[in-house]
């Protein structure tokens, strides 16, 4: 968990500092090789690749944090509600969650991006909402197990209502597992956002994203393959690091 926080903090560094202006055009330095001034070189417009990767990193971090927040809040809310209400209410919530799984995540994200534009917060919200179904089912399974514990029955016998019961007993005991489940999907959020940026729906080309860089540099795949290699490696490495961090617990 601490490793995942460290990864997000490193990605967020790009919001505070970049070695160069990521949008500064310098045609005299186009396709510069790796130098001290440009550690990863420059692109076809002479823009610093490291600076552009750093900006893309903090924008991706916003998406990951938004997806995690929506997944944790939504999953805990609907999952615990279903476990506590029981009966037809529980069935309705679970059937709705199962039905939402049928809709591909990217379809929901593409629709939101086409309507609202590809902003990191919007993309994160759309991806998070698309994942509410699995989060709800997972949280429901945890909540059902916790609700069956003797200390929960004792609290109910003492007259504790559902609200305090959820806040004091259910959520604190299920939150670590829900957080790990949502966090383990952070790599999927990274690749999904890169896919949206690659498609360019509503993206602002002046704000570099890793997927958008892949699209922009695709025409140089044979002449200057490193232009695609750096954002591709950033996507793959970030997704792999998130999965590894949460697999370690």
Automatic annotation (TrEMBL):
CDD domains linked to this entry: TM_PBP2
Keywords associated with the record: Cell membrane, Membrane, Peptide transport, Protein transport, Transmembrane, Transmembrane helix, Transport
Gene3D superfamilies in the record: MetI-like
SUPFAM superfamilies attached to this UniProt entry: MetI-like
Location relative to the cell: Cell membrane
Domain spans labelled ABC transmembrane type-1: 61-246
Keyword Nucleus part of the UniProt annotation: no
Protein family (similarity comment): Belongs to the binding-protein-dependent transport system permease family.
Protein name: Peptide/nickel transport system permease protein
Organism: Kaistia dalseonensis
Classification of source organism: Bacteria, Pseudomonadati, Pseudomonadota, Alphaproteobacteria, Hyphomicrobiales
